[in-house]
Amino acid sequence: MKYSIITPCGRHDLNRIKELARNLAKQNSHDFEWIIACNQSLELPSVDFPVKIVKFQPNTVGAAKNEAMKIAKGKYLFFIDADDYLESGTINLLNHIVGEYSDDTVYDVNCYQTYEPEKSSQIEMAKESSFNDALPDWGGSKYDKPEDRYFNFDVKNNDIDTHFSLWLQNRYWIYDKEYRYTDLDDQLFSRGKVISKQFIEDHHFHFNEDNSLYPDIQFMLLVTEFSAQLIKLSDYHYIKINHNDPINDPSLSQIPRNDRWQLWANAGCRALLKLNDQTLMNVFSKTVINNINTYFYKNLVTKDQSIGNNEVRTLLEIQKFLQLIDPRTYSNLKRINQKVLNAIKSGNFSSARHLMKVVIGLRNANQLVVNRGRGITKDTYFTLFKHVPVNPHVILFESFLGRNYSDSPKYIYRYLQKHYGSKYKYVWIADAEHFDHIKSKLKSQPNTKVVRRFGFQYMYYLATSKYFVFNMRQPKWFVKRPGMRFIETWHGTPLKHLVFDMDNVASASHLYKQTFYYQSRQWDHLVTANQYSYNIFHRAFMYPKDKMLKSGYPRNDILNSPRRDQIAKHIKQKLGIPLNKKVILYAPTWRDDQFYGPGQYKFKLHLNLAELKKHLSDQYVLILRTHYFIANHIDTSQFGDFVFNESDYDDIAELYLISDILITDYSSVFFDYAILKRPILYYVYDYDDYADVLRGFYLNMKKDLPGPLLKTSKSVLNAIENIDEVKSKYHDRYVQFNHRFNTWDDGHASARVAHALLKS
Ligand code: C2G
């Protein structure tokens, strides 16, 4: 048997390892056994190669790999982690190379890291399909099966031509020692490496069993020292799936641990004690010093308290490390950095800490120069304003990241303004683009101030206000100081899957879930509009039930107002809409896959407005209202006084009030609109794409919605022309829908949330 594939499998890997089993089964060569070191009970799909499961003690990855090595029968050991996999031709390619070189050769399958598993399988498919087209010119005819590709390959008989062709096509590269010593990063992990079992046994290499985070370092450094060369397969890949949910499914490197640095340095010391090759020792020392310089200072110094036990333990490890290495390895560092290391080395930790603070200060100052002062306002938040006492009489509001004066924060503000008046100062955040507009809207409001998002005043109020009412997330770097109270109103009953319910986060950063988690821990309360949202937020935000407010939506109070007809008439007049015309509101959402750049989404109008105008303009006008993420302005001037483009209108609730029919798609607007009991049409021209590819839904759109799903512009027109039929057809479903989603909204949600805010 040629290989023993060795896979340590922990508690978090039990599902992913099934994928790996399927992946190994897909390999076109099965000349291997699979040894899984796992202390859990494990269920695997059936496969046609031998699988052995071993238990191990202590419960560390190092012990898992050692135990697996003990029973391995393969000539070569191939290390694959449980949450990763191989491109399907990989073992086939290895078969042609592994064993052709001396036993002290390490073969390394090039690692491809990704946060999107489906993308990597696309790459794989593309590769498979290009197999036949991209056949080498080394004299073969077209082969049917990928494995035939290497039919003529025969290094043993010194088939130079073939060997050369392979070389040319980057199937693999040979690195000698000198080269390897220049770049150690990849060589400190065993994943993706194929190593002769005899070679490992001859030298008694084993993994570090008592270091739970860094068991590979010592093993791999020794392998590097004693091996003659490393052959890197650059054509096929070891696919490493990076975890995008570090909260529920952290990889070893994502588990938050404050002894991480201690363990790192400890692994480094152990390895150094075993190494003999001075050059390798120096290169490795440089890597460690580099890490200390880059990450460690920050971790240690940003803590406000004095050095705790953990830090001392870490410093002691680093001290040991520094005592083992040649000081010349860090002689190229700036003097002050050298001083830090020397202070640690001589055990003078408080002086080291003080010097580190100076280094960080210098780095920040340097950053300011590099950024030409752009970061300066944010710096004032940390260096100055965060030290000003919290003001118990200031309430800060933000709606849609400062884009408008609207949504629940607006109605909570109005309530507070009316009932508490000058007891508080009310500060609204407006982004640069909408600042003048929001300021003019609020100019006659007493005790109210508008600040520009990210400006100095914003930093001041963000650092010193006692109360916060936001409908989206606060900045990542916001520090919630003792005594502050934060109410998150959120901005809609969810239809599309949210945060932890999303499989991948293609349209957001891979740390989205983690960031969201930490941000939402700063919220004292989260507003919910109905039991359905309450249940979803608990799961999708992992938000504690007892902190949610079962209040209903403040933004919907206006829809239940006894004065709503009067208000509507006033708004209609303000917008210049003839009072004798009925209003259709078209309010679609945004699409994750249609954008210009980060946060800049585009919208293409599919609704045939010319046709609607032709048939409906006697009786109706249409209000177009794009989502706040949409950056492009849609020119509707050709439709004259039939279309009102109110995409910039502050408060969509006021547009609900004046409209007689709503057309929407996957936007949460229909949950609120249903309160008015007026007809809703769903124009979902891209339903299949949106539902299957972009996002999943919480509701069954075909069964649960209080209106028809319409895929063509023509059917929308038809539904409007027969709106009474639509109304009667959906009457029962409408009643059920409102019963399910809108019973908490009784017109007094703002009062409930305002009281919860002020209760300290
Ligand atoms: N909105 C609007 N105009 C639109 C669409 C939305 O003013 N054309 C406002 C509504 O208040 C709506 C809110 O923005 O409720 C959220 O919009 P969605 O289309 O539902 O999309 P999204 O911003 O992704 O939020 O739990 C709710 C979700 O987070 C959805």
Automatic annotation (TrEMBL):
<dbReference type="Pfam" id="PF04464">
    <property type="entry name" value="Glyphos_transf"/>
</dbReference>
<dbReference type="InterPro" id="IPR043149">
    <property type="entry name" value="TagF_N"/>
</dbReference>
<protein>
    <submittedName>
        <fullName>CDP-glycerol:glycerophosphate glycerophosphotransferase</fullName>
    </submittedName>
</protein>
<comment type="similarity">
    <text>Belongs to the CDP-glycerol glycerophosphotransferase family.</text>
</comment>
<dbReference type="GO" id="GO:0047355">
    <property type="term" value="F:CDP-glycerol glycerophosphotransferase activity"/>
</dbReference>
<dbReference type="InterPro" id="IPR051612">
    <property type="entry name" value="Teichoic_Acid_Biosynth"/>
</dbReference>
<feature type="domain" description="Glycosyltransferase 2-like">
    <location>
        <begin position="4"/>
        <end position="108"/>
    </location>
</feature>
<keyword id="KW-1003">Cell membrane</keyword>
<keyword id="KW-0472">Membrane</keyword>
<dbReference type="Pfam" id="PF00535">
    <property type="entry name" value="Glycos_transf_2"/>
</dbReference>
<dbReference type="GO" id="GO:0019350">
    <property type="term" value="P:teichoic acid biosynthetic process"/>
</dbReference>
<keyword id="KW-0777">Teichoic acid biosynthesis</keyword>
<keyword id="KW-0808">Transferase</keyword>
<dbReference type="InterPro" id="IPR007554">
    <property type="entry name" value="Glycerophosphate_synth"/>
</dbReference>
<dbReference type="GO" id="GO:0005886">
    <property type="term" value="C:plasma membrane"/>
</dbReference>
<dbReference type="InterPro" id="IPR043148">
    <property type="entry name" value="TagF_C"/>
</dbReference>
<dbReference type="InterPro" id="IPR001173">
    <property type="entry name" value="Glyco_trans_2-like"/>
</dbReference>
<dbReference type="InterPro" id="IPR029044">
    <property type="entry name" value="Nucleotide-diphossugar_trans"/>
</dbReference>
